[in-house]
Amino acid sequence: MSISMYAASVPVFQQALNAISGVLSKAEAHAAAKNIAPEVFLQSRLYPDMFNLTRQVQIACDFAKGTCQRLAGQEVTPIADTEVSFADLQARIAKTLELISAAPAASIDGSEDRVIVLMPGSARERTFKGQAYLLTYALQHFFFHATTAYDILRHNGVEVGKKDFVGAN
Question: Would you say 56 and 81 are in contact if contact means Cβ atoms under 8 Å apart?
């Protein structure tokens, strides 16, 4: 039995983005309750050479949006990286959810062999077939950044656990 490319992408990203949104809400409430400036969390990172929380969320959103739009054969909608608050990050997640929900299931299904060409942070071009792109590249990168965002908050004392990371399924 096979699984559709749509089922392996859009609902997975939706569940995870909603979970990130929930974790960010808990972080914002924690900051308010403990009288911690939100910027402390937004600028936190796990190690000096890693991206901060804000950038982790931006990249996770970009992978979700870009993956769904590429698989659907659409141009990737750019979103400027201007977020400086929890509200800004929530708005970015909402916009990302809106964009991936608009990707037609009929366009994503059947994209297993669609050629996806990337230039990830360098002049070196990477070419994938749709299924390999989703399963061996995009999901791994998305979940790396989603996990790192969660870990930054947990490391900084926000009371979140596995149920928060997994979200509603």
Answer: no
38 by Cβ neighbours in 10 Å (0-12 / 13-18 / 19+) ranks as middle
User: Is 154 buried (19+), middle (13-18) or exposed (0-12) by CB count in 10 A?
Assistant: middle
Return the amino acid letter for 95. Answer: K
What kind of fold does domain 10-166 have according to CATH? Four Helix Bundle (Hemerythrin (Met), subunit A) (1.20.120)
Q: What is the DSSP letter of 112?
A: G
* Residues 6 or more apart whose Cβ sits within 8 Å of residue 95: 61, 79
The helix/strand/coil state of 46 is coil
| Secondary structure letter of residue 145 according to DSSP | H
**CA gap 102, 52 in Å, rounded:** 29
What would the pLDDT profile of 66-87 be if each residue is shown by its tens digit? 999 999 999 999 999 999 999 9
Distance separating alpha carbons of residues 129 and 137, to the nearest angstrom: 11
Q: How distant is the alpha carbon of residue 41 from its chain centre?
A: 18
Q: Rounded to two decimals, what is the model's pTM?
A: 0.95
Per residue in 125-136, pLDDT (tens digit) is 889 999 999 999
Domain ranges of the chain: 10-166
Residue appearing with tokens 């995870």? 16
